[in-house]
Amino acid sequence: MLFGIFGRKKEKRDNAPLFDGALIGKFARDHKELAGHIEKVYRHFERGEEAKVVKTLKRMQKKALNHFMEEDLKLYWYLRKHYSEDPSALMTIRNFEEEIKPIQKEVILFFDRYTEQGAKLDGRFKQGFDEIVKRLVKRIEAEEAQLYPLYKEE
Hints:
Strand content: under 5%
Number of helices: 4
Order of helices and strands: HHHH
Distance between the termini: 41 Å
Number of strands: 0
C-alpha cells in the first residue's frame, strides 16, 4: 500500500465549532455597527455626498458579508449539532438558515450594483436601500428574539 492511505477507512470527524460564550455579544455589536452604517448612508445620501455613500456602503458590505459567513460557520453549524435530537428546535434553525439565503443574495447584489464605479445613486437606489434595510431589520429582530437564545453551551 502506498503509505497506507489506500484501503484505510476515513474516520468520521466532528468538526463542528465549539461553543463561544462571546459569539452572541459579537453578533449584537455587528448589528449595532450595521445600524450605524445604515444611518450614515441615509445622512450622506440626503446631503448628496455620493462618494461618502459609496464608501459607507463598502464598509457595510464588508461587515455584512463577514457577519453572514460567521453565522454560517459558527452559529448554524453549532446549533444544528447541539439540537440534532430536537426536531422542533432543528426545524426553527433550518427555517432561519433557509430564510436568510435570499436576503443574503439580495444584499450582495445590491452592494455589488451600487459600489461599482459610476453607479447612479438616485431614487431607485434609495428605494432599494429602504427595502434592504427593512428586510435586515426584520431579520435581526427575529434572530435576536428567537435564534440567539437557542445558542447555549452543551
